[in-house]
Amino acid sequence: MHYFEPLSVVIDEKTVEEVQQLIESSQQILITAHLSPDGDALGASLGLYHYLKYKGKNVKLMVPNSFPYFLKWMSGAGDILVYEYNPKAAKTIFEHTDLIFSIDYNIPKRVGGMAPLLEKSDAKKVLIDHHLFPGNIYDVVISHPEISSTSELVFRLLYQADKYDEMDKTIAECLYCGMMTDTGGFTFNSNNPEIYLIISLLLRKGIDKDRIFSLVYNNLTEDRFRLLGFTLSQRMKVYPEFHTALIWLSLEDQKQFSYNKGDTEGFVNYPLSIKDIIFSAFIREDEDLVKISFRSQSTFPTNEFAGQFFNGGGHLNASGGEFYGTLNDAISLFENSIDLYAEKLINTPK
Ligand code: 5GP
Ligand code: MN
Questions:
Q1: CA torsion, points 216, 212, 9, 160, in degrees to nearest 10?
Q2: What is the pLDDT of residues 54-72, one digit of tens each?
Q3: Tell me, what DSSP letter sits at residue 112?
Q4: Is 137 part of a structural domain of the chain?
Q5: Do the domain assignments include residue 2?
Q6: pTM of the shown model
Q7: What is the CATH number of the domain that holds 38?
Q8: What is the extent of the structural domain holding 75?
């Protein structure tokens, strides 16, 4: 009896073969993920990490900076090396590695201070990512912007290499977490029916998807929950004529709620709950820059907007950028920018 349609071949078969050969011929493997790693970056990296460990490889996983507490439950999270904490040790690791994986980012710039180490390394390099415009430093490129998470790509890589049987519950939990977080709990970028075939295959490994949801989304500290309430009631401006909403937080606001890294994760999605709002922005003052996140519904291209005005990029419906200046200047730039996009904003259906 057939329970599942087979998954379609997304990753080119030759590429799958090449990655397998590179893994086979490497002993020291380094997995890297992007700045401020999110659920997908960590889930995909840890899934691959556990698989390579199981294969007997000497594998390390390094990220540029720390990650939020609601992702620390994932098995192996405690092994993750944070570049910022020990750049000297990081340099030594880069010098003694045969193979580097770049997970969930497209270009070296996205690993911040680790970028020169990555670029200078003589190791073979494999990219596994779903952002547009993959960089040119790679020996093998698995780049699929049409796939909603890098974790799904890691699943597909193992599945296509006929390694489903070697996947255990731990690997499945990490990959599920990444698939879930990059689709907002399967509420956006999640209409590909094969996503649910994959979930089914992950459930067969014994994962508890309800528990994973709770660990990520029902795990807020009181401060974080109150900060969300404060942001929505005191720091939100709606531009009804542009179908746009903006939320912002100053450093002072964040201090008031004992802000910790990751505390505002997901905040930018909330204004999209408002009727007729198709574009949401979150401008957050940080120590030495202003960080901006964008989300949209349907066809409004936040990545184009982020690239044009905020030196950033990302996906159509989820992107981000940076601003060097004051919080107020960032807000003014945003307001001038939506003026320039008025026609598109007004004409995009929800
Ligand atoms: P978030 O809003 O969750 O920080 O980021 C959403 C997405 O936007 C990320 O997955 C990434 O693709 C993109 N992104 C965020 N910040 C930047 C940035 O500063 N530059 C670029 N190029 N992309 C970004
Ligand atoms: Mn991702």
A1: 120
A2: 999 999 999 999 999 999 9
A3: G
A4: yes
A5: no
A6: 0.91
A7: 3.90.1640.10
A8: 13-217
